[in-house]
Sequence to fold (123 residues):
Amino acid sequence: MNLAKLCKAMFISIPRLNPSDCADRIRSGAAILVDVREPDEWTEGVADQAALLPLSDLNGPRTHWKPVLETVANRELVLYCRAGGRSLIAAKVLAAEGFRTANGGAFSAWVEAGWPTVLPPQG
Fold:
């Protein structure tokens, strides 16, 4: 994404959702949960059902993001990270590209809400 598009994306308003606000949509497949932390942060665990797509790849070659974005269709992307800042940036960038997004905030909020966590796949 070029700098002009990134600057424009920063002015887009994105809803901030609590895990309870979107749990049913994620479980039903109407929304996709995405962990935008970096791979070294996933070792502490990830939210069950979350796609592991680092922000660095979204802002870079999109090696991991591209196949997921091609299958999103009309589903909402609910993004989370360690504290909610990077997920907000990712949500804004994707919204500027026409995707429906929401900021799911911090991984710890998902844990505190009782959302199941798993260890990421090795590889």
In short: The chain is about 35% helix and 20% strand.
